[in-house]
Design a protein that fits this description.
By secondary structure, the chain is mainly alpha-helical. The protein folds into two domains: 223 residues, no CATH class; 157 residues, no CATH class. Helix content is 65%, strand content 3%. The strands form two sheets. A two-stranded parallel sheet has the order 1-2. A two-stranded antiparallel ribbon has the order 3-4. Helix 1 runs parallel beside helix 7 and helix 14 crosses helix 17. The longest helix has 33 residues. It is globular and about 65 Å long. It starts with a strand and ends with a helix. About 1% of the residues have low confidence.
């Protein structure tokens, strides 16, 4: 039998371009388009947590044909890069921490779920995300997919988002009643509040406004970059209107996470234009753009902002000070629940500093670490009540806090090392290039997705793993 060969990609050993079928690229494009569809109501019993993620369905096909090609050719390609090495170290540590906690995992039991079940499911999730990163690297290297291509695919993903949100916006503002259309579309793309009119704000094809914020964190820098790279003035205006529309959707999502990420990315992108080696024309454009954004924000603030959507946890003023006030309100029960459960995760990690409690095991320990302040929240009481099972598994509300709890101090050190090295690589690339708008968009998008990980405690953020793969290629070009 022919043995498997491991072929290393390196800067000095270029991969043969166009050495795989075009079908890989076409399915990859579909995966990018499906990124905003993060709350699908299908195959939950088969795929578990992954079932709600649109890109997963495209990558299942890509994984299958990649495995077939590997078995056929007996060749495994691995790109030699420090980012990949750190990722492998992190995966190994996830396995080691789980083995070290295996005896406890076998006896973990809460809300009708057992530790070994959560272990298997979460190992499957993490492994699948690693495969997404690996297969994305194969495609973008072998099909020579550039940042221009990536940006175009991301633009395609905004089409269903823009259409769905258009009906939502007109419905929320009371201009035209599109309830019947929204209900039918929601029945197809939503698991949460399926087939219903969502009144708290714009959620589009995502599950809820905070999910829409996470998608926006990924796409905003890429769409904004068109304003700076297009030569034709008419196209500049068209893309300018497109990014303004996207920002308006974020505003009317009424999501505090969305506002935080939007402000952060606009600052980072503007700072990059003004500080890195960019053309004078682009510096003038960003100054004008900032002025337009501020004017629009003021106009929305004094007219329709408080008349549309939202609830007691929403921001009631479109400003940085209003956002900070809302996020630091000690009597806001959303803050109490979120910060309380993040504190729980960190304390679990401190008590199990060496190897954590094992992947997927945070929820089994959470009830023993909840303090009195967190118990003011009815949601927290529900999460730690062993008798409630419907949509009540204890969340960590932050991927970083969850890693501390489940992989321990060394686990979070490895993860932060990955982040710091990746950002540093992007920074060096930007500092040594001229007018690198797409590089700035890539870095801003990556930073935005990292920030959004403070809002979600899952590894199943497809855009994060896709971006890591893109960065591996970009930093070595």
């Amino acid at each position: 039998m022919k043995k498997f060969k491991i072929k290393n990609w390196s800067i000095d050993n270029e991969v043969q371009v166009d050495s795989i079928s075009d079908y890989y690229k076409y399915i990859f494009i579909i995966a990018i388009i499906l990124i905003p569809f993060d709350n699908l109501p299908y195959f939950g019993k088969v795929l578990g947590e992954l079932s709600v993620r649109g890109p997963v369905y495209a990558f299942i096909i890509l994984i299958a044909i990649t495995m077939f090609d590997i078995l056929k050719s007996r060749e495994i390609f691995i790109y030699k890069d420090k980012i990949n090495y750190i990722l492998i170290v992190f995966l190994i540590w996830v396995i080691i921490s789980s083995i070290a906690n295996f005896n406890n995992i076998l006896i973990n039991d809460f809300k009708g779920r057992i530790g070994i079940e959560k272990l298997i499911l979460q190992l499957f999730v993490v492994s699948f995300m690693f495969l997404i990163c690996y297969i994305t690297q194969i495609i973008i290297f072998k099909k020579n997919v550039t940042l221009l291509d990536i940006r175009k695919y991301i633009l395609y993903s905004t089409i269903p988002v823009g259409i769905y949100s258009f009906f939502e916006l007109l419905n929320l503002t009371g201009i035209i009643n599109f309830s019947w259309i929204i209900e039918k579309m929601s029945g197809v793309v939503h698991l949460y509040n399926r087939g219903e009119i969502y009144t708290k704000g714009i959620r589009s094809v995502t599950g809820e406004p905070s999910y829409f914020a996470m998608y926006s964190a990924f796409v905003i820098p890429w769409i904004l970059s068109y304003v700076f790279t297009e030569k034709d003035r008419k196209k500049k205006v068209q893309y300018g209107l497109a990014i303004l529309y996207l920002l308006i959707l974020v505003i009317f999502s009424k999501s505090r996470v969305g506002y935080a990420i939007m402000f952060f990315e606009l600052v980072v992108f503007s700072f990059g234009i003004l500080v890195f080696r960019m053309s004078k024309q682009n510096k003038k454009i960003i100054i004008a753009f900032i002025g337009i954004i501020i004017t629009i924000f003021i106009g929305i603030n004094i007219t329709v902002f408080n008349k549309i959507g939202g609830d007691q946890n929403s921001v009631h003023e479109l400003s940085v000070s209003g956002l900070i006030k809302s996020l630091t309100d000690k009597n806001n029960m959303s803050n109490v629940a979120r910060l309380g459960m993040q504190k729980v995760a960190v304390n679990i990690g401190i008590d199990n500093a060496l190897v954590g409690v094992g992947i997927g095991q945070y929820g089994f320990y959470a009830k023993d670490y909840v303090d009195e302040n967190a118990l003011r929240s009815n949601e927290v009481q529900n999460w730690i009540n062993p008798d409630t099972t419907e949509n009540s598994w204890p969340p960590a509300f932050s991927l970083y806090a969850r890693i501390v709890a489940e992989q321990g101090i060394l686990g979070i050190i490895i993860w932060i090392t990955l982040i710091i090295y990746t950002i540093y690589s992007l920074f060096i690339k930007l500092r040594t290039s001229y007018n690198n708008i797409l590089g700035l968009a890539l870095m801003t998008s990556f930073l935005g997705v990292l920030i959004s990980s403070f809002n979600a405690d899952t590894f199943a953020i497809s855009q994060l793993w896709i971006l890591i793969a893109i960065i591996v290629k970009y930093k070595n070009e």
